[in-house]
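User: My instructor asked us to take a sequence, write out its structure as tokens, and then describe one feature of it. I'm not sure where to start. Here is the sequence I was given:
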Amino acid sequence: MTTDASPPLQRAESLRAFKIRAVIVHLACLGVFFVPLTSTVLWTAVALYFVRVFSWEAGSHRYFSHRSFKTSRTFQFILALLAALSGQRGVIWWATHHRAHHKYSDVSPLDQHSPRFHSLWHAHFGWLLSQRALDTDLTQARDLARFPELVWLNKYHYLFPLGLLIATFCVGQYTAFFGATGLGASAVVWTFFVSMVLSQQAAFLLNTGLHGVEPGWFRYRRFATQDATTNAWLLAIPILGGAFHNNHHRYMNSARSGFYWYELDLTYLVLKILSWLRVVWDLVPVPQDVLDEGRKSKGHALPGNP
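Assistant: Let's start with the prediction itself. The structure tokens for your sequence are:
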């Protein structure tokens, strides 16, 4: 059952609560200097980092923002839940802001992520520090707001990371999952806080590291888009393919950001495997004319300042 009865503006939390939580989450990472580290804790943190990046790159970004593939309502909710567990807020909130980013990308101050119109701090994180930025205008994502479970998850997204934090501590403290009992603090610091913060910073880096920076030895600009985006092959693995940002802005509806075989897009690879299993389907391909355009390209400089 879907519904159109949701109020247009949804407030998930106060700005004060968000600021307090952001400070706590980042300060908690300093715990790495005070807790023991085992190989199991470290590798679990690494694995969960990639799960978190996949949750927002495949889920919040390619599916909820751009509808680049189809899936069942059940798996749709799983993607939304994973994104919430990763500290990426609700997927409706994520999609409304990201769609606005594409609409005004690097051509208007309405693109809150653009370092061309705002400071690096504002584009990276500062844009979040207003109540308006934290609220969700459900009218900007009516295709998602018709699902009551997504609207509910969007409002109460912060409860799920809290539950995961408690569960992580209990597993580390009272079981030998990480190699011994009594590792609750280590598990929380490394597999929850550090892993989460790094995955969040990876998302923020797309705004400040791949917009408005001239092409260089690890950045290139294949398409002459109106925005100031580049691709960064060096970040392909850490961001699971999302670093081919200029490609993405050339054709944002594609299920893949690495348009060519040599552009490693691990998110697309996982989606392809899921499509073979019929968990997802109808992955949107890159149009042939766009591929041909890219093959002929000798690279482009950034456009002039608007």
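For the description part of your assignment, you could build on this observation: Residues 1 and 19 are 36 Å apart (CA to CA). Try explaining in your own words what that tells you about the chain.
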